Amino acid sequence: MKKGLFVLASLLIMSSHVCGLLNIEGNTVWFNDIGQDPGNYYGAASVVGDSILFNPTNFAAGTGEAQMYLNKQVWFTIDAKAGRDIDSLEIEEYGDWTLQGVGTAATFVEVSAIGNLRIEQVEGVDLANPITVQGTMLFKQGPSVWTDGRYELPTDGPGSSPWEGELKFDIDQILLDNSVVGKATRVYFTMDNILTAITEDGTIAQIEKKDIGGFVVTVPEPATLVLLGLGGLLLRRKK
User: Fold this and answer.
1) Which of 137, 140, 136, 119 is nearest to 128 (CA)?
2) Domain residue ranges in the chain
3) Whole-structure pTM over 0.90, yes or no?
4) Furthest-apart CA pair in the chain: how many Å?
C-alpha cells in the first residue's frame, strides 16, 4: 500500500512540473500557485535563474476571421527565499503581426497587456492592507520605435513585423510611496493579455505571441548586491 501511495505521489509531482503549474523554484525566489485561463494559451511555464518563462503556442488573433478578440490571463505568487527580497519586476513579451491586402485603417491588429501587482508581505510579515498597483505595457517595433500596440493598414502594412512589449514595477518605490518601511518578500502578479484582429474584404490581419521568448517575468538581483560585489573586487585588487 505504501508503495502504491509513493507511485501516485511521484506521478502528481511529475504532472505538476510538466504542466507548468503549482510551484517552481528560482535562484532567490519561488514562483508559486502558477495558473492561467483555460486553453493553455500561454503554454507551459519554466524557470531560468529568477525568470519565469511561458512559451505560447496558440495565442493568436486573426487567421481568416473578420473580427477576433482574445483576452487571456496568467497569474502566480512570488515568494522570496530566506534572506532575500523582491525589489522590482521586469515583464517582457514578444510576438509578430501581419497585415496584407488593400484596405483602410479599419483593417488593424492590436496587442495590449495590463499587469496587476499586489504586495502582500514585507520582511516576512503579511500586510494588513496589501498594496495593489496596475501598469500598462508599452510596445516597440524595431530597436527604438515605441507604439501603443496598434498597427493599421495602410500605415503599417502591408507586411509583417515583430513586436516587443515591456513593463516594469519598481516595488521598492511603491513601498516608499505608501510609507511602508522594509522590503517586499511576497507579491502576487496577474497579467491580462488582449489580442485583436479586424479585417475588411480582401485583407488579412493576424497578431500573435511567439513561442520563443513569449512572455517573461524577471525578478532582478538587488543592485546593492552587485555594488557590494564590485566593491569587494576593488578591495582585493588594492591589496
Assistant:
1) 119
2) 2-238
3) no
4) 74
